[in-house]
Amino acid sequence: MSTSVIAPQSATIVPEASRPEFLPTLFGRSLLIVAENAVYSLMERLSPLDYGGGFWAFYEHEGKPLFLAPQSKSRLRITGEITGFQGEVSAEAAGIIATLFAFSHLSFQSEHLSEGYGRLYAYSADHPEAVEIFQAID
Which of 14, 113, 118, 136 could serve as 58's disulfide partner, Cβ 3.0–4.6 Å? Predict the structure, then answer.
């Protein structure tokens, strides 16, 4: 009997042509500016030693927007005051953490954001840095 193992599908970077619709679809048009700024502000607080702005990649999974991640460094130290977690993670994991915090912070304002949080939380369970992500958001 043969058993095949299927690796979890990873998120992919949104192509340049699809970027304009990514944020409105992820956060909804009514909270677009608030949610986007929340992610960037949270990253400043989560990684004050390593994050100082810059270009962000947008990630989707199974055709749906999922999270944002900074591209200024490949790894970031999470040391900020909003989480008890102290450690270094990939830029992708740092983006997942910041996006989860933003979703959580704003989820009471929109069912759409609650659904986005649930989708990203479920995706994070299969991420290679799931332990670090969950420690950071706990």
Answer: 14
